[in-house]
Amino acid sequence: MVLLRLFLIFAKIGLLGFGGGYSIITMIQKELMAIGWITAEEFANIAAISQMTPGPIAVNAATYVGYRVGGFWGSALATFGVSLPSFVLVILAAHFILKFKESKTLEACMRGIRPVTIALIASAFIFFAFESFVDLTMPLYISPGAFAIFVMAILASIAIKMDTILIIILSAVLGLIIL
Protein backbone atom coordinates (compact mmCIF):
# COMPACT_ATOMS: atom_id res chain seq x y z
CA MET A 1 0.00 0.00 0.00
CA VAL A 2 2.85 2.40 0.84
CA LEU A 3 4.51 1.70 -2.52
CA LEU A 4 1.32 2.47 -4.45
CA ARG A 5 0.81 5.63 -2.40
CA LEU A 6 4.41 6.73 -3.12
CA PHE A 7 3.87 6.21 -6.83
CA LEU A 8 0.54 8.08 -6.86
CA ILE A 9 1.80 11.03 -4.79
CA PHE A 10 4.83 11.53 -7.00
CA ALA A 11 2.82 10.97 -10.19
CA LYS A 12 0.46 13.73 -9.02
CA ILE A 13 3.44 15.99 -8.32
CA GLY A 14 4.92 15.17 -11.71
CA LEU A 15 1.61 15.86 -13.44
CA LEU A 16 0.74 19.12 -11.67
CA GLY A 17 4.22 20.49 -10.97
CA PHE A 18 4.68 22.96 -13.79
CA GLY A 19 7.75 25.15 -13.92
CA GLY A 20 10.56 22.77 -13.11
CA GLY A 21 12.20 21.51 -9.95
CA TYR A 22 12.18 24.64 -7.86
CA SER A 23 8.49 25.22 -8.32
CA ILE A 24 7.82 21.53 -7.57
CA ILE A 25 9.74 21.76 -4.30
CA THR A 26 6.79 23.46 -2.59
CA MET A 27 4.42 20.74 -3.77
CA ILE A 28 6.72 17.96 -2.57
CA GLN A 29 7.11 19.64 0.82
CA LYS A 30 3.37 20.12 1.37
CA GLU A 31 2.43 16.62 0.21
CA LEU A 32 5.03 14.79 2.29
CA MET A 33 4.62 16.88 5.45
CA ALA A 34 0.81 16.59 5.27
CA ILE A 35 1.01 12.80 5.54
CA GLY A 36 3.79 12.91 8.13
CA TRP A 37 6.49 11.22 6.08
CA ILE A 38 8.98 14.05 6.72
CA THR A 39 9.50 17.07 8.97
CA ALA A 40 10.39 20.57 7.75
CA GLU A 41 14.02 20.05 8.77
CA GLU A 42 14.22 16.70 6.98
CA PHE A 43 12.71 18.26 3.89
CA ALA A 44 15.28 21.07 3.91
CA ASN A 45 18.01 18.41 4.07
CA ILE A 46 16.40 16.38 1.27
CA ALA A 47 16.22 19.49 -0.92
CA ALA A 48 19.86 20.36 -0.18
CA ILE A 49 21.02 16.85 -1.05
CA SER A 50 18.83 16.81 -4.16
CA GLN A 51 20.29 20.13 -5.27
CA MET A 52 23.89 18.99 -4.81
CA THR A 53 23.55 15.72 -6.72
CA PRO A 54 23.39 15.55 -10.51
CA GLY A 55 19.97 15.43 -12.14
CA PRO A 56 16.63 17.17 -11.77
CA ILE A 57 15.83 18.19 -8.20
CA ALA A 58 12.32 16.65 -8.30
CA VAL A 59 13.67 13.29 -9.48
CA ASN A 60 16.43 13.34 -6.86
CA ALA A 61 13.96 14.23 -4.11
CA ALA A 62 11.56 11.48 -5.25
CA THR A 63 14.38 8.93 -5.29
CA TYR A 64 15.58 9.94 -1.83
CA VAL A 65 12.12 10.07 -0.21
CA GLY A 66 11.04 6.88 -1.96
CA TYR A 67 14.06 5.04 -0.58
CA ARG A 68 13.54 6.45 2.90
CA VAL A 69 9.86 5.45 2.96
CA GLY A 70 9.84 2.24 0.88
CA GLY A 71 13.39 1.04 0.31
CA PHE A 72 14.60 0.16 -3.17
CA TRP A 73 11.12 -0.36 -4.67
CA GLY A 74 9.84 2.82 -3.04
CA SER A 75 12.71 4.71 -4.61
CA ALA A 76 12.06 3.18 -8.04
CA LEU A 77 8.30 3.80 -7.95
CA ALA A 78 8.57 7.38 -6.63
CA THR A 79 11.14 8.21 -9.32
CA PHE A 80 9.03 6.57 -12.03
CA GLY A 81 5.92 8.32 -10.71
CA VAL A 82 7.44 11.81 -10.82
CA SER A 83 9.00 11.22 -14.25
CA LEU A 84 6.19 9.50 -16.15
CA PRO A 85 3.75 12.44 -16.40
CA SER A 86 6.52 14.78 -17.58
CA PHE A 87 7.60 12.30 -20.23
CA VAL A 88 4.05 11.97 -21.57
CA LEU A 89 3.32 15.71 -21.32
CA VAL A 90 6.52 16.71 -23.13
CA ILE A 91 5.71 14.38 -26.01
CA LEU A 92 2.16 15.79 -26.23
CA ALA A 93 3.34 19.39 -25.80
CA ALA A 94 5.95 19.03 -28.54
CA HIS A 95 3.33 17.68 -30.91
CA PHE A 96 0.81 20.43 -30.21
CA ILE A 97 3.30 23.31 -29.99
CA LEU A 98 4.63 22.42 -33.42
CA LYS A 99 1.10 22.10 -34.74
CA PHE A 100 -0.20 25.33 -33.15
CA LYS A 101 2.98 27.41 -32.82
CA GLU A 102 1.28 30.51 -34.26
CA SER A 103 -1.78 30.26 -31.97
CA LYS A 104 -2.63 33.35 -29.91
CA THR A 105 -4.46 31.11 -27.42
CA LEU A 106 -1.39 28.96 -26.83
CA GLU A 107 0.77 32.07 -26.38
CA ALA A 108 -1.75 33.52 -23.89
CA CYS A 109 -1.72 30.27 -21.90
CA MET A 110 2.08 30.27 -21.77
CA ARG A 111 2.10 33.90 -20.59
CA GLY A 112 -0.36 32.91 -17.86
CA ILE A 113 1.80 30.03 -16.62
CA ARG A 114 5.00 32.11 -16.23
CA PRO A 115 3.87 34.20 -13.21
CA VAL A 116 2.72 31.06 -11.40
CA THR A 117 6.17 29.57 -11.85
CA ILE A 118 7.74 32.65 -10.26
CA ALA A 119 5.27 32.47 -7.35
CA LEU A 120 6.06 28.80 -6.72
CA ILE A 121 9.81 29.48 -6.79
CA ALA A 122 9.31 32.42 -4.39
CA SER A 123 7.32 30.14 -2.07
CA ALA A 124 10.19 27.64 -2.04
CA PHE A 125 12.64 30.49 -1.38
CA ILE A 126 10.63 31.68 1.64
CA PHE A 127 10.43 28.15 3.06
CA PHE A 128 14.18 27.62 2.72
CA ALA A 129 14.97 31.07 4.11
CA PHE A 130 13.05 30.26 7.29
CA GLU A 131 14.53 26.77 7.54
CA SER A 132 18.06 28.03 6.92
CA PHE A 133 18.49 31.06 9.11
CA VAL A 134 15.41 31.86 11.18
CA ASP A 135 15.12 30.22 14.59
CA LEU A 136 11.39 30.05 15.31
CA THR A 137 12.03 29.20 18.98
CA MET A 138 13.38 32.72 19.48
CA PRO A 139 11.20 35.60 18.21
CA LEU A 140 12.74 37.52 15.31
CA TYR A 141 16.10 35.75 15.62
CA ILE A 142 18.12 35.32 12.43
CA SER A 143 21.33 33.33 12.58
CA PRO A 144 24.05 35.81 11.61
CA GLY A 145 26.39 33.04 10.43
CA ALA A 146 23.81 31.40 8.18
CA PHE A 147 22.73 34.78 6.82
CA ALA A 148 26.39 35.71 6.11
CA ILE A 149 26.88 32.46 4.17
CA PHE A 150 23.69 33.22 2.22
CA VAL A 151 24.88 36.73 1.28
CA MET A 152 28.38 35.51 0.35
CA ALA A 153 26.90 32.76 -1.84
CA ILE A 154 24.72 35.27 -3.69
CA LEU A 155 27.66 37.63 -4.20
CA ALA A 156 29.91 34.78 -5.32
CA SER A 157 27.27 33.62 -7.80
CA ILE A 158 26.20 36.98 -9.23
CA ALA A 159 29.14 39.39 -8.82
CA ILE A 160 32.08 37.04 -9.15
CA LYS A 161 30.29 34.38 -11.23
CA MET A 162 32.02 31.66 -9.21
CA ASP A 163 31.39 28.03 -10.16
CA THR A 164 28.31 26.61 -8.38
CA ILE A 165 30.12 23.52 -7.10
CA LEU A 166 32.86 25.67 -5.59
CA ILE A 167 30.21 27.86 -3.90
CA ILE A 168 28.57 24.76 -2.38
CA ILE A 169 31.89 23.39 -1.14
CA LEU A 170 32.95 26.73 0.35
CA SER A 171 29.53 27.15 1.99
CA ALA A 172 29.83 23.69 3.57
CA VAL A 173 33.31 24.56 4.90
CA LEU A 174 32.02 27.90 6.23
CA GLY A 175 29.13 26.04 7.84
CA LEU A 176 31.58 23.79 9.65
CA ILE A 177 33.59 26.78 10.85
CA ILE A 178 30.84 29.31 11.62
CA LEU A 179 27.82 27.25 12.54
Keywords for this structure?
179 residues; mainly alpha
Brief characterization of the structure:
The chain is mostly helical.
What does this entry look like structurally?
This protein is mainly α. The chain has two domains: 2-137, no CATH class; 143-179. The chain is built from seven helices and two strands, in the order αααααββαα. It has helices spanning 2-16, 21-34, 40-52, 57-99, 104-133, 144-158, 164-178; strands at 134-135, 141-142. The protein has a two-stranded antiparallel ribbon. Helix 1 (2-16) crosses helix 4 (57-99). The longest helix has 43 residues, at 57-99. It is globular, with a radius of gyration of 18 Å. The chain starts with a helix and ends with a helix. The model has no long low-confidence stretch (mean pLDDT 87).
Any chance you could write out the topology, listing elements then pairs?
Blueprint: H1 2-16, H2 21-34, H3 40-52, H4 57-99, H5 104-133, E1 134-135, E2 141-142, H6 144-158, H7 164-178
Antiparallel strand pairs: 1-2
Major sheet, described briefly?
2 strands, antiparallel
Order of helices and strands: HHHHHEEHH
What percent of the residues sit in helical stretches (DSSP H or I)?
over 70%
Q: Determine the mean pLDDT.
A: 87
Number of strands: 2
Strand-residue fraction? under 5%
Helix count from the secondary structure assignment: 7
Strand order of the largest sheet: 1-2
SSE-based structural type: mainly alpha
Characterize the overall form. Answer: globular
| Number of structurally distinct domains | 2
Ends: how far apart? 41 Å
